[in-house]
Amino acid sequence: MLYPQLNEHRETTSLDGIWDLRFQWQEANPEGWESGFSPERHVAVPASFNDLYTSYSERNHWGFVWYSREVRIPRAWRDRRIVLRFGAVAYSADVWFNGKHLGYHETGHTPFEFALQDLVQDGTNRIVVRVNTRLTPDCVPPGELNMPGSTIHMGGNKPPANFDFYPYGGLHRPVCLYTTAPSHLQRILVDTKLADASADVAFRIFAEGGGDQVRVTIEETGQTAVFPLAAGTTTAAFKITEPRLWGIGKPELYHAALELLENGQTVDSYRQRFGVREVKLEGGKFLLNGEPVYMQGFGRHEDFPIIGRGHCDAANVRDFELLSWIGANSFRTSHYPYSEEQLRLADERGILVISESPGVGIVPDIATEKTLATHCAAIREYMARDYNHPCVVMWCVANEPFSQQASARAYFEKVVAVARSMDSTRPITMVTCFGLEDTCLDLLDVVGVNAYPGWYGGGHPFDSSVHAWFADFLKQIHDRSGGLPIMVTEFGADSVAGFHALPSELWTEDYQSELLEHILEEIHKCPFVIGEHVWAMCDFRTGQNDRRALGNRKGAFTRDRQPKMVAHLLKKLWKK
Ligand code: BDP
Question: pTM higher than 0.90 for the full model?
């Protein structure tokens, strides 16, 4: 699915803004709402609805909530293919257009779209979306797993999500209408491979509806050629001599102009951006363009006051400014695929991304066929969406599953196989918190390790024993995995900004900063570690439970993006 583009052959119109909203309080679907309903609330799109409202029941609504708006369609579009596209709706969405059900989409972080053609009428057209925020045990990620006392599964959390971030709901990313010709480009996959002083660049192109040829022009080099389509597809191969390589802080980007031809006439076009770069694991190191790279950065969240998990360009720009300020070269899209807009920024700033699926907190022993199918579908969708971003250097199929369980290996063999079938050019990882009991480590290329020495299970007053075991622990995981590179994907401590104590105490900025300094010393003793991601970049909202004070406070920055003490420490270390 191509990101919408305005060009000589395509139009696009944003449907963002104020929509109507109504909560569904009863089980049974209210009659007729599919065609429109009398609104109760204004709601902003894109945004989570939760933090807009002032009552407990609305803010924490766990179930159906209906969105609606009108739209008028230019007559000039009538002979065009008209597509309604949602950037992401959490958790799931049913969509109606003029009362007709268009379809359903599940998992809250990938785009989906519907062709509208015959349904469009003069005058008012109505779009209705029924959002479901309720997460049942077979959702990805799961909710309502009744696991009282399970700290990693946030037993007793309200709302009952089994993970440590607020289960925001709504139309989280931009909504738009776009048009193409009936014959149109549908999918483009770009592969680049370095060979001596040149690069082989291949575009796998898929068209729908018609078209017999594709002209591809690489704007920066002036190379151009026409390729015949067979059954709607072709591969366009080029060699770029002395390519400018995309790298950390060196966001060299190329642009390919693709034109779909029908009887010699251009009927559709698309400008595809790409970077020439190669990632490899060799000798236990992570190599970018043949050079070893050590990743420094954070696990993050898409989370911001008022808008919740909604897309916000301003918040994204601020976050990338903070990443530059602190000297981070990478981040993980914990714990779901981030917006396409974020990945574009990462491409443009030369920041490496470990892109994660929404599979957080999977419990294989109770996972159903539906869980597995949903998880695999989500992986196919987000890997297809993000394939062309040079910033994405690794795929992470899951965070902290119960990977020590009897069914874990069979489950993750399937998940990893799906990921490998989608991309053979990037390493696959998974994040473990079961360390030495994990049964899946050797299925991966890189092992992600989350551990909280000095925080969970006994912290301050910390003496050397709190963290001194950490290097040894990492070495044991490395050995158990058969010698795979280790990425330390999470470590940290909560601190409430403004809390200080001498000597330091739990929850103070002082303790967070001291602890991280010691943990980093341990990590740096391990030659098999390819990177360190502090948990987390910013404080973020979670469900309510007795371990969280208005959310998770492990941020190096506050939720409104101001530095804590530890941010200055990291800046000193990472800017070296
Ligand atoms: C890890 C999870 C992360 C949590 C973090 C924490 O991967 O989502 O927020 O712990 O407890 O287990 O702060």
Answer: yes
